[in-house]
Every structure is written in structure tokens, then in C-alpha cells.
Amino acid sequence: MNITQWSQLVLICIIGAMSPGPSLAVILRNTLSGGRTNGVLSGIGHGLGITFYAVIAVSGLVVIFNTIPYFFSFAQITGSFFLIFLGGKMIFSFVKNNYAQNEKVLSNKSTHHGFFEGFLIAFLNPKIAVWLLALFSQFVQPNALFVEQFILVSTVGVIDASWYCLIAFIASSGTIVKVLQQNAARIDLVMAILLIILAIGILWQAIPQIT
């Protein structure tokens, strides 16, 4: 993996982490109800949950790539289309203005045991496993060494935990979080467009490998 590919991975991970959803709702709820420490612990727990799935995704893909011929190229192309699909869904949600659901999730979440809640909201969400499989299919090489696999996994886990810890700090300040909530739809739209552009770029690079 070169620096350009790693930069693409970082940007996609940031987009994925910033996308509003149940995880963000739990972190915000725990922070607003339990304080900054509880929110930070929730963010760290969520990052560990993401890391757990990342380890499984990376190790599994390496084995499959070395076992099934042409699966690497197939996974890259399929994963790119899935990322484009996710970006399209985000844009559709923006058009339909369905962000009230996120606020509803926020109001119904418990705040006990912030660390475990953060971990479980990631661990018990099967969509995260699908997301990581699609993501890593773009960057995992069949001959990836342990060091490269470690970089992939740690990049995803650290970015996820760092983002939600940042959210905990922002939410505990009281004023900035209101601005973010008011502009959540616009932020999500921008992230969706960036995700689609990145996925198309990766797809464009992957197609020549099978022709």
C-alpha cells in the first residue's frame, strides 16, 4: 500500500465515521447525560468494536484472495459499487429529509456503562461488517504482510475512536453540538458526494485489472 492508497483509506474512514446514525446518537446521548468522560469511553469502546470487525475482515480477505482466483478483482469492483450505493442512500435520505429519525434514536438510548454501550453499538451492527468488507476489498492485497494488515486495521480503529472522542468533547461544550445538529443534513450530503467520487475513482483503477 502506497501513501496515495492510504490517504484514500483515511478519507473514506473519516466519511464513514462522520455519517450520522445510531452510533453518533449513542455517543451524544452518553456525553450529554453522563459527561465528557462517559462520552470519551463510549467513543473508545466503539473504536474497539470497529477494530474487532476490521481484524476479521482483513484476515478473511487475505485468505480468500489467495485461495480463489480473480476474487480480488471481483471484490474490488463489487465493493466500489457498494460504496457508491451507500453514498446514493445518503443523498436519497437528504432529499427525503429523513433526519428526524436520528433525533428519535438519540432520545431513546440508555446512558449506563458508556464504554460497553459504545462497543456493543458497533459489535451488534451487522452493517459495519458489510461496510468494512466493502472498504477493505479496495485496499487489501493478496500478498499483504502482517505489517500492512496492522496498518489497515489500526487506521480504521484509530480514526473511528478519535472521531467519536472528538464528538464527546464537542458535545460536552454545549454550544458547538447544536450547530452540528442543525447542519447534519448538509454535512451528510457533502460526505455522500465525496464517498461516491472516491468509490468511482477506485472502480476506475480496478476495472483495467480484469480486462
Mind sketching the topology for me?
Blueprint: H1 3-18, H2 22-34, H3 36-67, H4 71-96, H5 100-108, H6 114-123, H7 126-136, H8 146-173, H9 176-182, H10 184-206
Relevant terms:
single chain; 211 residues; mainly alpha; 10 helices
Question: What does this 3D model show about the protein?
Answer:
With 211 residues, this protein is an all-alpha fold. It has one domain. It is built from 10 helices and no strands. It has helices at residues 3-18, 22-34, 36-67, 71-96, 100-108, 114-123, 126-136, 146-173, 176-182, 184-206. Helix 1 runs parallel beside helix 8 (146-173). The longest helix has 32 residues, at 36-67. The protein is globular, with a radius of gyration of 17 Å.
In short:
The protein has 211 residues and is an all-alpha fold.
Number of strands: 0
Largest sheet: none
Domain count: the total is 1
User: How many helix segments?
Assistant: 10
Distance between the termini: 22 Å
